[in-house]
């Protein structure tokens, strides 16, 4: 598990390898990840958007941006947390993801970004 705190918002990420399959005559490696967003600040905040950079061992880079997470824009009061699961496909058995969440502080009405720590994706059979 990797963790990082930005402006009182703690992000924790756990990953797992889901398996391999063929798509368009190419092998793909499926990875799942579970993110916990915990508000350790004294203000209520809302997650409005996400931005991901997904890298694989073949030097392919994919950027994903969008509103909310899994169709939600959670509001977190102090001490509350939100957990969700998602996944990605790579064309190699190794990779990494990193990014940030765009949030708004309800007390100050200011927007800010919360770093998502870089986390590694690796198929267990490929680890030496």
UniProtKB/TrEMBL annotation:
The record's section on SUPFAM superfamilies has: ApaG-like
PROSITE patterns reported for this sequence = APAG (PS51087)
* Residue intervals of the ApaG domain: 3-128
Q: Which domain of life is it from?
A: Bacteria
* Gene Ontology terms: biological process: error-free translesion synthesis
User: NCBIfam families, per this entry?
Assistant: PRK05461.1 (NF003967)
Q: What is this protein called?
A: Co2+/Mg2+ efflux protein ApaG
* Classification lineage: Bacteria, Pseudomonadati, Bacteroidota, Flavobacteriia, Flavobacteriales
């Amino acid at each position: 598990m990797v963790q990082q705190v930005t402006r009182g918002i703690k992000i924790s990420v756990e990953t797992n390898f889901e398996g391999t399959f063929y798509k368009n005559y190419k092998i793909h490696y499926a990875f799942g990840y579970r993110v916990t967003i915990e508000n350790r600040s004294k203000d209520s905040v809302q997650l409005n958007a996400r931005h991901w950079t997904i890298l694989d061992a073949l030097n392919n880079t994919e950027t994903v941006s969008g509103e909310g997470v899994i169709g939600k824009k959670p509001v977190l009061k102090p001490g509350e947390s939100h957990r969700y699961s998602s996944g990605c496909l790579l064309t190699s058995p190794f990779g990494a993801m990193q990014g940030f969440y765009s949030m708004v502080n309800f007390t100050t009405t200011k927007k800010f970004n919360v770093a998502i720590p870089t986390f590694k994706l690796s198929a267990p059979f490929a680890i030496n």
